[in-house]
Amino acid sequence: MKAAITILAVLAAMAQPVAATPMSAKPDGANITAGRGTGRVTGLKLPRFVSLKSDNARMRVGPSTEYPVRFVYMVAGLPLEVLEEWGNWRLVRDQDGSSGWMHAALLSGHRTAIVAPWLKQGANLRRSLAPNAEITALMQPGVLVKISDCSGSKCHVTLHRPRLSGYVSQAKLWGVYPREVIE
Question: Taking the CA of residue 48 as centre, how many other CA atoms within 13 Å lie in the half-sphere pointing to its CB?
Answer without folding.
Answer: 21
